[in-house]
Each structure stands twice: as structure tokens, then as C-alpha cells.
Design goal:
Layout: E1 4-14, E2 17-23, E3 34-35, E4 37-40, H1 47-59, E5 63-75, E6 80-90, E7 99-105, H2 117-120, H3 123-128, E8 131-135, H4 139-157, H5 165-173, H6 176-186, E9 189-195, E10 198-207, H7 208-211, E11 219-226, H8 235-241, E12 247-252, H9 256-264, E13 268-278, E14 281-290
Parallel strand pairs: 1-6, 11-12
Antiparallel strand pairs: 1-2, 1-4, 2-3, 2-7, 5-6, 8-9, 9-10, 10-11, 12-14, 13-14
Length: 292
């Protein structure tokens, strides 16, 4: 009977890319093939403990172990294994110690032919992209929301808004107090979006009537920000699909790219809206509507 081993692997994700490590040893089915960092679980270890140890031994890399992708059984010529692969967040720089090459690969470029057979069984999960949303409810969550907003808003609007307006809007409308007040009094929901376990964006929405009393039904989306690495991954359409129709969004009248994306998703322009933000700042938007 072949020996059997419990093995763990770390799908290390950074900026949307997967760390692939090319083996420098092993039998003909795995040598010079890519694999996830990881190895055998020692007696008395949990999977998490084994992953942390293996990543340090192989890469001198500190990680935060995330959710389980899957567990499979695989039979090699000399042994059988139960392989459990977990998402992992890198917390430090790393050094190649036992592998001959490292590459950060876009999930779309993951080819099972380049990977050790057992590891290759997990690639489709990463290629398809695991999208998950989590309700924001803590100060740490709210800080993530502000960080996303800083990145997306400065990227998109620095050349289209008055100096200081973006930071003013974030400080005023996305403070802990403002978010909690919206949740308590306006039925707002704030959700952080994860793509392959990595923070990819957030969105906030409420009943449309909370935005304007004349909107008797549907949902108003006040924010939908996706970080650059996660765009084009069907995240926006998936989030919109779960909201009560019609869905309304406000988009800056001169933001041609976002308007085009919204129209591609089925939105149409309903009217122009000017809003006084205080402190001498204002915004001119189109209210857009996605019908049933």
C-alpha cells in the first residue's frame, strides 16, 4: 500500500495575482512544474500551523491564512495525498530558498499543464474568481472603505474636482459616524467586496426612497468602487444583480467612462442633479436608472 500524507498549500494572492513556485526536485510528474507554497502536515499540527511553518521554511515569508479553497485526494506513483489549499495573504517580503523560479501570475494565465497535477486541480477556482461580500460593521471595516475610496476617487476625479474636494467628501460622508448614522437612520448597507480573498472594492446602498421621496421603489447605490486589479471581473454586474430593482446611481456628468460602463450594464440617464456638499463644494451628476 502506498503511503498517504496530509498536505497543505497556500494560494498566495497579491494585487490580484497568484504566486507560482517552480519545483527544483521531485519525480517526473512534478519536477520543474509550478506549485503552491506548502508541504506535509506534521503530527500535532493544524493545517494553519503547517502552512505558516512551510511558508517560512520555503520562503521566509509571513502569511495570514484565509479561507479553504478545497480539499482533494490525489494519487501519485509513489504516494497518495489529501491536499488542502487555502487562500493566504503575504505579510512580508520573501526569499526563494528551495524553488528554482517564482512568478506572479494573473489568474487568467494559469495553465494546469504548467503545474504539478494535484496543485493544478485548484486553478479553475482561481481563474473563475471567488467573489464574496461582507457587511461592514466595525471601525476596521470603515477604514478599509475609506482606503478604497481614497484610491479610486483620487484616480478617477483628481482632474475633475476642486482641490481638496475628494478628501473633504471622504472625511465628511465616510467617517465612522456618518456610516453608522446612515446604517441606523437610512437603512444603508455597506459591503466590502473580496475577489479571491483579497479586498477588491466596496459598495453602499439603501432603499431608493431614502435618497429621494419621489422614488417609491427600488434601490439607490451611493457608492460602487472597484480597485484597478479587480475591474473587468464581472464584479459590478454580480453586485447589481442582487439588488431590488429599479436600481439608481448618481454619476458625475463628465465621467464618460463610468457613464459608459453603466449604460453597458443597462442603466439609462433619468435627469441631471446638482448637490451642494458644503464648504463651497458641489457636484453635478446624472441620476441613472436600471429598470426591472
Amino acid at each position: 500500500m502506498k503511503p498517504h500524507f496530509n498536505v497543505v498549500g497556500a494560494a498566495i494572492i497579491k494585487d490580484g495575482k497568484v504566486l507560482a513556485l517552480r519545483r527544483s526536485d521531485g519525480n517526473e510528474s512534478v519536477i520543474h512544474k509550478f506549485e503552491f507554497a506548502g508541504g506535509k502536515v506534521k503530527k500535532g499540527e493544524t493545517d494553519k500551523q503547517a502552512l505558516i511553518r512551510e511558508c517560512w521554511e520555503e520562503l521566509e515569508l509571513e502569511i495570514e491564512v484565509g479561507e479553504l479553497l478545497n480539499t482533494i485526494e490525489y494519487e501519485y506513483s509513489d504516494c497518495t495525498i489529501s491536499l488542502s489549499v487555502y487562500f493566504a495573504k503575504p505579510l512580508s517580503e520573501y526569499t526563494i530558498k528551495v524553488h528554482e523560479e517564482d512568478k506572479w501570475l494573473d489568474p487568467a494565465d494559469l495553465d494546469p499543464m504548467d503545474w504539478a497535477p494535484a496543485d493544478g486541480a485548484f486553478l479553475m477556482i482561481l481563474k473563475n474568481g471567488q467573489i464574496k461580500t461582507v457587511d461592514a460593521s466595525t471601525p476596521k471595516d470603515f477604514e478599509i472603505i475609506r482606503s478604497i475610496s481614497q484610491s479610486v476617487m483620487h484616480e478617477a476625479y483628481d482632474e475633475k474636482t476642486a482641490d481638496g474636494q475628494i478628501d473633504y467628501m471622504i472625511d465628511r460622508f465616510l467617517s465612522d459616524e456618518s456610516i453608522l448614522e446612515n446604517i441606523r437612520t437610512k437603512q444603508y448597507v455597506y459591503q466590502i467586496i473580496y475577489y479571491n480573498s483579497e479586498v477588491a472594492g466596496f459598495y453602499a446602498y439603501c432603499p431608493a426612497q431614502q435618497y429621494s421621496p419621489d422614488l417609491q421603489e427600488g434601490t439607490y447605490v451611493s457608492k460602487l468602487y472597484i480597485l484597478e486589479f479587480a475591474r473587468g471581473k464581472r464584479i459590478t454586474s454580480k453586485q447589481l444583480s442582487v439588488l431590488r430593482r429599479p436600481v439608481y446611481m448618481s454619476v458625475k456628468y463628465d465621467d464618460a467612462q463610468t457613464i459608459s460602463i453603466c449604460k453597458h450594464c443597462g442603466f439609462r440617464i433619468v435627469k441631471s442633479v446638482s448637490t451642494d456638499l458644503g464648504e463651497g463644494y458641489s457636484t453635478d451628476d446624472f441620476l441613472m436608472k436600471l429598470d426591472k
